[in-house]
Design brief:
By secondary structure, this protein is an alpha/beta fold. The protein has one domain: Carbamate kinase (3-Layer(aba) Sandwich), CATH 3.40.1160.10. Helix content is about 35%, strand content about 20%. It is built from nine helices and eleven strands. The strands form two sheets. The protein has a nine-stranded mixed beta sheet with strand order 4-3-5-2-1-6-10-11-9, with helices on both faces. Helix 2 packs across helix 4 and helix 6 runs parallel beside helix 8. About 45% of the residues are buried.
């Protein structure tokens, strides 16, 4: 009889970049990548894990990039926030096709397509077994979606932030450029800051450090890696105090 894996974490926040939804090119929404994301999220939900997802919007628009092209930064950031809502709705559709109940909550009011972010309501959805997808970032310009992930993780009482990437953890240099790059199995917040490793943007990282919120950076596109991460297996890099 196959042994059922028991989760180490019971409430997690999964941070997905917009580029991840865009597939190999990181642009637009790639159906196969979207479906794989949904399969992995549905898999851990069946284990009884409460899952919150924060999605980025870089596959559609980046406010910082737009500022370099003449668009006012605040306007560009609002445009990027709308991109995260598009991604949240796409992920919701993919999950519900797998019979996985979801709710999308937005930091920007748009009542016809998403609920407003209300912490108590989000927690209640989780308790009822629904996956909650947060879109719209923090609702404020000049903040990245990493900051939204750190903020929401602390607000809803997540035990860990699972930062999904296309590499298998944090390295001391770019592994694509340096074949001798060293991967860290575990690293402290202070070491990551001193080494200037790009774990998250500085605001998000400081929020995690101040509130002792662990972060696992892992390769989301290796089959069943999300399940392995929530089960407590050594996947990717753990950032902790």
């Amino acid at each position: 009889m196959k042994k059922v894996q028991k989760p180490k974490y019971h409430r997690v926040l999964l941070k997905l970049s917009g580029e991840a939804l865009g597939g190999k090119n990181g642009i637009g929404i790639c159906p196969s990548f979207l479906q794989e994301m949904a399969r992995q999220i549905a898999e851990v939900r069946r284990m009884g894990v409460q899952v919150v997802v924060v999605v980025g919007g870089g596959n559609i628009y980046r406010g910082a990039a737009g500022a370099g092209q003449g668009i006012e930064r605040a306007t560009g950031d609002y445009m990027g926030m709308l991109g995260t809502i598009i991604n949240a709705l796409a992920l919701q559709d993919a999950l519900e096709k797998l019979a996985c109940p979801t709710r999308v909550q937005s930091a920007i009011a748009m009542s016809q397509i998403a609920e407003p972010f209300i912490r108590r309501r989000a927690v209640r959805h989780l308790e009822k077994g629904r996956v909650v997808i947060f879109g719209g970032g923090t609702g404020n310009p000049y903040f990245f979606t990493d900051t939204a992930a750190a903020l929401r993780a602390n607000e809803i009482g997540a035990e860990v932030i699972l930062k999904a990437t296309k590499v298998d953890g944090i390295y001391d240099s770019d592994p694509k450029k340096n074949p001798k790059a060293k991967r860290f199995a575990e690293i402290s917040y202070l070491d990551a800051l001193q080494k200037r490793l790009k774990v998250m943007d500085s605001t998000a990282f400081s929020l995690c450090m101040d509130n002792k919120m662990p972060i696992i950076v892992f390769d989301f596109f290796k089959p069943h890696n999300l399940r392995r991460a929530v089960s407590g297996e050594k996947v990717g890099t753990l950032v902790t105090g």
